[in-house]
Structures are given as C-alpha cells and as structure tokens.
Design goal:
The chain is of the alpha/beta class. An eight-stranded mixed β-sheet has the order 6-5-4-3-2-1-7-8. The two termini are about 35 Å apart. The longest helix has 18 residues. Helix 14 packs parallel to helix 15. It is about 40% helix and about 10% strand. It contains 15 helices and ten strands.
Length: about 350
C-alpha cells in the first residue's frame, strides 16, 4: 500500500462502494497498530491481499524469476475451493485483492469463478495479465465477472521491441485482446474493468514512450502507466542498489528519470499479506524463494495462525526497533532493511 494523502485515503476507504463499518473499524485498528503501537501481534486482519492464483507463465521475461525458470518456488494453480476458504475467512475485512503476482492468472481456468466469488463480498479486484492467452469468449467472462481493474502488461509498441523483454509473446495478440475487451465493455454497457496499459521503460523502448501515449489514445484504454523497472524482481530484497544496478545495467534506460529507485518503507507486515497458490504466505509481494515465506495457511488451518506466528512477530519487532541480531538475518525482513537502506539499522552487540 503506497503512502498517500489523507484526501486520497478518504476516497479510497470511506467514500467507496465497498465501505462497511466492519471493514473500516478493522482498517483503523491495524493502522493504529502500524503507525502508533507497532505491535508484534496484530489484532485484526489485513486490509489488502495479494493472492497468486497461478505462478506459471509461458513467457520468458528476463527480469522475472518465473520467466528465468527459477526452481525455488513450487509451481501450480490455486483451486477455487482453496480460494473460497481464504475469502470466507478474510473477505469481510478486505478492501482490495491483487489477483496476480508471479505468473499469468488467466492460465488458471477457475480465475473467473474466483473473481465472481470475491465480488460477492464487494472486494475490489485488480488483475494483471500479458493477454497472450485470451479470446473473445474469455473477454465476455472477464467483463461480466465483476473485475474492477485490469492491467495489461505491454512494454513496447511493435513486435520487435515487445519481444525483447516479453520473450515468447505476441504483440498483435495483446493489442487485439485489448480491443476485444474494450469492445465487449461497450457492447455489454459495463464500465469496468478500468483497463490500464502498463509500459515498463527500458533501454530498448524508452524512445517509444511518445508512441505509446499516442497508441493508448487510439486503442481507447483508460490509462497508460509508464513505470521504471525495479531491477531483477526475484532479487529486489536481496541486493542493494549498487548490486542491482550492476546486474541489470543492460536494461536500464539512458534517461535517469526511469532508472532504479531506492525502495521505500512499507507497511506490509501490519496491513497486507501475500498468499501463494499453495497457501504459502509471503510477508510481501517481492519475495520469491518459498524458503523465506512465513508459513502456510492450509497447513495451519487458518490465516490468523500464520499472521501472528513467531516469524511474523519477529519481523515486526525488527521493523519497529530497526535493530538486528546475528540470528535475525535469517528473517527476510531484516535482509530487506539492510539492502534497501531503510532507516538506520543497528546491530546488537
């Protein structure tokens, strides 16, 4: 969750269709614990979730651990029944779910049922896709599902530039899929999902930003999101800025405006969580190795048992104190603090 203005918070959490008193009281409770008391044990539930329905993808994007073919996270697809268990426990407290992380969510055949089920709880759903696995029938199901925000990942304005990063992808298929979605929204007279074209700026495509803006207008997408790359996504928390820059130098744009940025403090440990397809819980969306996860909700029996287990409580203490022991380096949150340069990290003697 980004740090935003009070006015934006009001519009996001109060003047919104999914406002309920229960959600709002839970929001106030967890934000108080994050901002004031910094409790290691959180009373309440996350306000937002990342749920990864599928961490499989047939594209081979070089800065994505899935595209690289890394083996340190088990591959698979979440079942609808497992998704339903999560929503039945947490749905009344959640404002938003990002239904994507390490793979292509549309490869999960039950993704449409998942969106529909979460929509019944009035939870805002965001989904990011490469749209390489799409057709007109899927377009209708997606528009009717209740999805509120769709991010189309398309970092190029031609097949030549697009395939430099989205290796194995088809530029025309993404464009045609986007058109189908826009046409289906008009045909069904449905205003959602809001469609965002996400354009990651890299050395080979930074000259195409103006073309992308023009093309976005012609396509009729709701917005164009021009983003800088954060480096190798599987190592964001494990390398410092100098190490990351060295590793991804061939991808960095010439314009420093779009170069790597230092990571900012996060409030994930109090207000958000990531649930992977098999129930494994990551403390944030940038953690790829499953060995650094904090537990498994399907094995534990419910989310709350993982949310306040020893690894979570220890991580919150590290963030609160900004002080680590030798044993703390086993916790990914300690390594993240050191590498991101967040605060002044002192080592106990």
């Amino acid at each position: 969750m980004k740090y935003i203005r009070i006015k934006d918070l009001v519009h996001r959490f109060i003047l919104t269709r999914n406002f309920t008193l229960k959600r709002f009281l839970n929001l106030c409770l967890v934000f108080f614990q994050h901002s004031i008391t910094k409790n290691s044990r959180v009373i309440g539930y996350p306000v937002e979730l990342v749920i990864d329905p599928c961490n499989i993808c047939v594209l081979h994007c070089p800065l994505c651990p899935t595209g690289q073919g890394r083996k340190d996270r088990i591959k698979g697809k979440m079942s609808f029944n497992d998704f339903k268990k999560i929503i039945d426990e947490l749905g009344e407290y959640l404002y938003e779910i990002d239904l994507h992380n390490w793979g292509e969510p549309l490869l999960n055949e039950e993704i449409y049922d998942m969106i529909c089920y979460a929509h019944k709880y009035d939870i805002k759903i965001d989904l990011s896709t490469t749209l390489n696995f799409f057709d007109e029938m899927k377009a209708e199901r997606l528009i009717k599902s209740g999805l509120e925000h769709l991010i189309v990942s398309l970092s190029g304005t031609s097949q030549e530039s697009y395939q430099r990063y989205h290796i194995g992808g088809k530029f025309n298929k993404v464009v045609e899929g986007t058109k189908k979605l826009i046409e289906m929204k008009k045909y069904l007279h449905i205003s959602t999902p809001v469609i965002t074209w996400r354009f990651l700026v890299m050395k080979h495509n930074e000259c195409e930003i103006a073309d992308a803006r023009k093309m976005a207008v012609e396509l009729g997408v709701d917005e164009l999101e021009v983003l800088r790359i954060h480096g190798d996504m599987g190592y964001e928390l494990y390398w410092n800025k100098k190490e990351m820059t060295k590793e991804v130098t061939d991808w960095l744009p010439y314009n420093e405006r779009y170069n790597l940025d230092r990571m900012k403090p996060c409030n994930f440990l109090w207000v958000q969580a990531v649930i992977n397809w098999n129930g494994s819980v990551s403390p944030c969306c940038a953690i790829y190795p499953e060995a650094d996860d904090f537990g498994n909700i399907f094995e534990a029996g419910d989310f709350k048992k993982v949310w306040n287990n020893e690894r979570y409580r220890n991580a919150r203490k590290i963030i609160r104190q900004k002080r680590i022991n030798d044993s703390d380096v086993e916790n990914i949150c300690a390594r993240c603090l050191i590498n991101s340069g967040y605060g002044i990290i002192k080592k106990n003697t």
